[in-house]
Specification:
By secondary structure, the protein is an alpha/beta fold. It is built from twelve helices and nine strands. Helix 4 links the parallel strand 4 and strand 5. It is elongated.
């Protein structure tokens, strides 16, 4: 049981974490801060937070667990705002979708206070953002990746593991580097492709006519293109090196299949499709990775 959660960023992710802790009986009080006063007031009216703080530092004051739920680009500024109250024994976590940039910012700013920070990435979300969509069940049955550093306090790593497990998550641990490489492949590049594809459709003279004929396959393929533009701009830029590596690998595979089509090479094209079909058939959502990388 925590006495107080300091929530910095009252949006979907942070609000859902607060509600999940409350539902599980793990926190007595939630103090929330957001750059937008109207957002904080809405979070209070909805019962997501109990007290509105006027600054990030005041949200941290008196808290024994702190969640930083801000866009990744705002992480360093947030660390600067709260560093004087990053005390030993208080669990500080984030929810950023990239980890190397967040960890680097924490190293620069927190310095000797770094052991209190346990970087985290819950694999959960929706196409809609905002505190009004916060849901206590958002993290149920989902994975969360912790990317602790050598300096991170082992006691706080265990606390972080316990609290995420208590709200329904399967907890995995990776290095920040492995995390960013993996999610460039399975999340960030797919979003980039979906954004680019929708833009390509819109730029065609008959694009709207084509869209009127689209069915479930198109819906499923493009669903993630409805993601929040600000969030995804920050993610793609912060993890650009790994995303560009994955984009290059994708281009190579696409060019292979295009060449087979130009050459009327049906057998080779069918082999590529069969390989993809088999791989997709064997994949299952939520399967445990064969190795947990530290």
């Amino acid at each position: 049981m925590f006495n107080q959660l300091g929530l910095i960023g009252c949006g979907l992710m942070g609000g859902s974490f607060a509600l999940a802790l409350k539902k599980a009986g793990l926190v007595k009080r939630v103090v929330g801060y957001s750059k937008s006063p109207s957002t904080v007031e809405k979070a209070r009216r909805l019962g997501v937070i109990d007290v509105a703080a006027e600054s990030a530092l005041l949200a941290v004051s008196g808290s024994d667990i702190v969640l930083i739920a801000v866009p990744v680009a705002a992480s360093e500024g947030t660390f600067k705002a709260i560093r004087h109250l990053v005390d030993p024994g208080v669990l500080f976590m984030d929810v950023g979708s990239t980890k190397r940039d967040v960890v680097d910012a924490a190293r620069r700013v927190l310095k000797e206070r770094l052991p209190s920070f346990v970087p985290a990435h819950p694999i959960a979300g929706r196409e809609v953002a905002g505190i009004e969509h916060a849901d206590a069940a958002l993290y149920q049955g989902r994975k969360v990746i912790l990317t602790p550093l050598q300096q991170t306090d082992p006691v706080l790593i265990q606390k972080a593991t316990d609290v995420w497990a208590a709200v329904g998550c399967q907890v995995l641990k990776m290095t920040p580097e492995n995390h960013d490489a993996a999610f460039a492949a399975v999340s960030h590049l797919p979003h980039l492709l979906a954004f680019a594809y929708m833009n390509a459709m819109g730029e065609q003279p008959l694009g709207q006519e084509y869209l009127s004929l689209a069915g479930p396959g198109f819906r499923d393929f493009t669903r993630i293109a409805a993601g929040d533009p600000t969030i995804w701009r920050d993610i793609l830029l912060s993890n650009r090196e790994e995303v560009l590596k994955q984009s290059e690998a994708f281009r190579h595979s696409l060019e292979q299949m295009e060449r087979q089509m130009r050459d009327w090479n049906g057998p080779a094209l069918e082999e590529q499709i069969q390989t993809a079909s088999d791989a997709r058939s064997q994949w299952q959502l939520g399967t445990k990775p064969p190795v947990t990388r530290q």
